[in-house]
Amino acid sequence: MSHSYDTPPWPPAVKDQALRWLEEAQASEPSYPNAATLATCNGQGRVSARVMLVKAIDERGLVFFTNSLSRKGRDLAVNPQAALSFYWKSLARQLRTEGRIERIADSESDAYFATRPRTSQLGAWASMQSQAMPADNALQARLKMMEDRFGDQPVPRPPHWCGYRLVPDYVEFWQEGEFRLHERDVWRVEEGRWIQEKRFP
């Protein structure tokens, strides 16, 4: 599979199906239909995974936000490749994506940060994400520090908190079938163009 940095945009039909599956999940999943597992890899080849919330699916890929100083942020700084996988149990579906990671524009991160609840904004300043806490009350103490620091003023976006976009070069729509005879519809980039294929389960 090609992982070229000149990945062509994913076909509109692929993006539209991803959006349609997400919309259908929003009607059937009890909570967080936009939750997806993000897998990253550091410079030594160690893989880690965690559940993230995908905040947008657009013409260029899938957007999520996080602390760039976190473990995932450090992984992406040295190895800007990742996989995002949704699993919707209520629909017996998976949506798997792989590709390169790019930072979104600061203006886009600013705009999204401004929509977050104030406590979440303060928490982005207070949390030293992925670092060891010296005491059980350390987070609450740091949150109080940030409340005092900003008072009644608007909370700006921390410079280390930003948005990322996974630009896919592999997309798989997986639908569960009876007797594990699942349907797998794959789109992938090969030699600079998107091709579609079915795969055995």
What features would you describe in this structure?
The chain is an alpha+beta fold and 201 residues long. The protein contains 5 helices and 9 strands.
Key attributes of the depicted protein:
201 residues; alpha+beta; 5 helices; 9 strands; 27% helix; 36% strand
Helix content: 25-40%
Q: Over all CA atoms, what is the radius of gyration?
A: 19 Å
Percentage beta strand: 35-45%
Listing every helix as H and every strand as E from the N terminus to the C terminus, the arrangement reads HEEEEHEEHHHEEE
Number of E-type strands: 9
Task: Tell me the span between the first and last alpha carbons.
Answer: 19 Å
Q: Based on helices, strands and strand pairing, what is the structural class?
A: alpha+beta
User: Main beta sheet, described?
Assistant: 9 strands, antiparallel
Roughly what is the average pLDDT, rounded to an integer? Answer: 94
What is the molecular shape?
Answer: elongated
| Poorly predicted segments | 1-5
* Count of helical stretches: 5
